[in-house]
Specification:
CATH architecture of the largest domain: 3-Layer(aba) Sandwich
Number of strands: 7
Shape: globular
Strand order of the largest sheet: 1-2-3-4-5-7-6
Helix content: 25-40%
Number of domains: 2
Order of helices and strands: HEHHEEEHEHHEE
Amino acid sequence: MDESACKARYRFIDLCKADSATREQAALVLFEAFRDRNMDSWSTMDDARREVNECAVSEYLCIGIAEGTRLLGWAGLRPMYELTWELHPMVIHPDHQRKGLGRLLLREIEEEARRRGIIGIALGTDDETFETSLSGKELTPTNIYDELRNLTNTGRHPFEFYAKCGYFVVGAIPDANGPGKPDIWMWKKL
């Protein structure tokens, strides 16, 4: 589906102003998206609800994408530095992934960030499930730059999606999620 057809079919919701039923849908989307990924993140509905409530505060950006009354995904953007904010999290329900919704949602949150004077967005994209060439490796001062330069996707890791959207790798935190499970950091200038 092309972008203009997507924009006509879907609408964006400010989750900071959303009612409790919409926030509950946001928690369910988050829970469902990570439930089968064998990750510790948002492994219960209570964890997912806490994340939604933390993201949907008025000083942050928290935007959902919906079809009719059904929320299909959402993203949060919160201050990291004065002019560079962190994208956390970004999620599309598993039944609606790989249909252009993530790209559409990301563009919407970037546009709102520009309107607020934000000039850059950073994000961490964890590799807790061994889906990149960095996983399982001991990253050291002597090999980390070569490993980042030669980073490849060995599964369905989202760093390639973000790269296609203009983000680039700026570093990694080795063992951020346990031995051999790095957090890959990316950034985009708006």
